[in-house]
Amino acid sequence: MEVQFTALHWVYLAFIVFILALLIKRRDTTLICVAGIFTLGVIATETLSGSVSGIFNSFIYAIKELIGTILIISIIVAMSRVLIITGINETMVRPLTRFLRTPTLAYWGIGLIMMVTSLFFWPSPAVALIGAVLLPVAARVGLPALGAAVAMNLFGHGIALSGDYIIQGAPKLTADAAGLPVSAVMEASIPLVAVMGVVTTVAAFWYMRRDMKRGTWLDGLVAGGGAAAASETQIVLPANIRKSLAVIIPLLFAADVAAMFALNLQGGDATALVGGTAVLILAAVTLLAHRNKGLEQTTAYLIEGFQFGFKVFGPVIPIAAFFYLGDAGFTALFGPTLPETSHGIVNDLGVGLAHHVPLNEAVSAVTVTVTGAITGLDGSGFSGISLAGSIAQLFASAIGSGAATLTALGQVAAIWVGGGTLIPWALIPAAAICGVSPFELARRNLKPVLIGLAATTVVAMFLI
Fold first, then answer.
1. What is the DSSP string of 397-421?
2. Which of 105, 389, 428, 435 has its CA 20 to 30 A from that of 337?
3. Pick from 321, 382, 329: nearest CA to 56
4. Taxonomically, which superkingdom (predicted)?
5. pTM, whole model, 2 decimals?
């Protein structure tokens, strides 16, 4: 199929290259994305008013696409806040601590508990939910604080967030950017997330045990840190109520998962089920804890959650707005200004690339992994996965297959690098809870994560 390129294609490609260059230099890309939207608007509409309006309308378009993800994360954070303050989270986790009797069991136990919790609560709230309870247990059995931080970090911000199978925020972003169903990206990500998770956590454990035996393990403790620093003003609930809620809440989320399978709920429907359950839990626990002030406190917790959600997604919105223009978003905003034979800017570039560059599965997989990792250098993880999805679709169009696998690979690379396992300023939640230096935690994670990315990329080559 002959592709007809226009100025829109070349300008879009030029801005992608520019954005990648800025990410490599660890510079913010928001202003460049806005400039890209404006420039594309000028070319498409040939009017100043249309291009200026296009900036605002593109933000609205991005928010409409992302609002479900923003809301679910905000609500989960709000709910986790009240569970921490009432001590319900401690009651939920305490029975599991009896199994953590050696440093090895503590490492894997804390990691697995963190992973499961992060799937439902998202990693940053999950760190606060379980860190204060499990960290003293780890120290008691001989697992260093830095070892506990590595486990919580790799299993939570790594495995759980890169798959994000319950809340589905990450696959929603990458799937939209690649023009694929969320379910396709989630299914394709399962073997990649599994390989990345196993290789990385095993490598990290091996390095930790080796250095502890050699006496070269430095714990990177910082003064004034640790779980104690993250303590909250507690609201005392009767023990029987606290214990009952500690059983009921996990059962409610387990029922949600069962309903997802039974009713074949995916994407927005699955997110809505989890979100509605979280709102009901938030309201019920707040009323029990605050009694006469329950009405006002429910709103206060929601405000805290929304502040967190928009703080996380504030940088994402303008970036996603630009990358949505690579697919259906362009026509929605600027009308049918592309050639009639066009299937979207990204798809056109992919087809054109296939005609001029000798691409294969190996080159595509390596390039998508590197692109995903670069997009994570800003320390967000989420801000760049729209680009990772767009690049994956471009290469999939060029080689004629593997769209879902390449998209999932870009997602895994971006989240593992930027979501909170390698970039020091993204490691602060886990580092603060454990009282260790985020720079030392990043250094400890570096080799295991790079080994995992290499192994995952090789596996993706055979799956494309």
1. HHHTS-HHHHHHHHHHHHHHIIIII
2. 389
3. 321
4. Bacteria
5. 0.72
